């Protein structure tokens, strides 16, 4: 090192070109992720915040504000987790480890329920099982002479069923991937020693897939704890509150500090469960299942149970995928919920309004508010997808190219922090930070900009993971050669990395787009009359009793998501072919 370099100030030696990029990325992620969390924490430490802590945790209102919502949240989280493990584990075992007919068809069908928004399943349930307790038109079954008890129409039981039907496909995907790694040599060795099927299952298969079971349980539990749509649609009418719905209610009526306290408590509940699941997996003995031989999977013959189990697996897929979609489509065409499959009309889609139907409300494609919501939704999905994937690529590039350094480790931890934060709590944190002016910056509350910022930040973990997988296929020699010729970092990124990663990035961006189109938990607090989105408008219609309009909008969301998902799968297939 030369004497001028030794004489340079310490900060100038620290800010080398190698450190500048990680520091800049840490600053960006800190503003997007860490600053809102710190702001919401500081808001709860103010005098009004201290009073809010006392009101929620230690006051006569605590049972309604905290303890009952917490109990309902835990019941839903643990119940959904257990149900998803049972259904997801059964279907994964059926598809991966047995000779059931139509395994590939069943495998595809059992991945679809997670693509359907949870509020779509909740709306379909209400269309079928709604009773007259809350007034308005009854559901299909009660209108046709069936008596629907309150516990089946409203409250924790239908919410539990809807969330299990929504999240079990996530457990199926995780467990199926683990079961496919159970080599045939392990099973055959046990069979040669005379072990029976129960002994093989509990002695070999179950210990090998335990990490996948724990992962599936923790992810489905976290999803159920953070879910807003199903408890709001099926629980709020009978005052069944969860932490997410109670948080929304506090912000909605202007008690922001209490909402912020509930947001921190919701983050703590989710974080505790994820931490315990991580400790459970990291503390167990590892099993080597992928070796140089025996990679094929051993399939157990079902004998006479092949077709009955196929019918069971196919029926489950139909009930969680096809039936809700059919109910929503039929409801959007029927003038009465009790006659879903007769007297169909396109009024709720194309009606001009002013008549006897739906109090004269125009169809969704003739309603300026709905058309504006559609355009806003598409714009939000596209903008968030592009920003998230470009930022994710930059973060992944910085982390992988500086792997092992302190700055890269800090950046990686910050980028994955949103995984621990439920969507509605993350939205509350953004309200705390940007809901009031910051110096010369105006308040962003209710603006499209705030929606984009919050959505992009919350999707960062997925974008970074996608960027890492794409960059893993690109040799660092290409960038090093360009650097030796004098190309700067931006030039190397634009001329080398982006063209080689574009197909994988587009596939990931489309999946982010789908997530934004169907998301309700994140936008429910950031929604305003000037920036409506389809999911929020559908929720408002359902809350006001206009079920046909809510179902029609939900069908439109499903069509958009399905189209985008098919495009993403086609792009991923091209990416795989290109990699080969």
From TrEMBL:
InterPro entries referenced in this protein's UniProt entry, alphabetically: MetI-like, MetI-like_sf
Membrane topology according to the record: Multi-pass membrane protein
Residues that span the membrane, as ranges: 20-42, 74-96, 108-131, 151-179, 200-230, 259-276, 307-334, 380-399, 406-432, 493-514, 520-542, 549-571
Keywords, comma-separated and alphabetical: Cell inner membrane, Cell membrane, Membrane, Transmembrane, Transmembrane helix, Transport
ABC transmembrane type-1 domain ranges (all copies): 70-277, 374-568
SUPFAM superfamilies: MetI-like (SSF161098)
Transmembrane among keywords: yes
A Pfam family hit: BPD_transp_1
Subcellular location: Cell inner membrane; Cell membrane
Family: Belongs to the binding-protein-dependent transport system permease family.
Protein name per its UniProtKB record: ABC transporter permease
Organism in which the protein naturally occurs: Gemmobacter nanjingensis
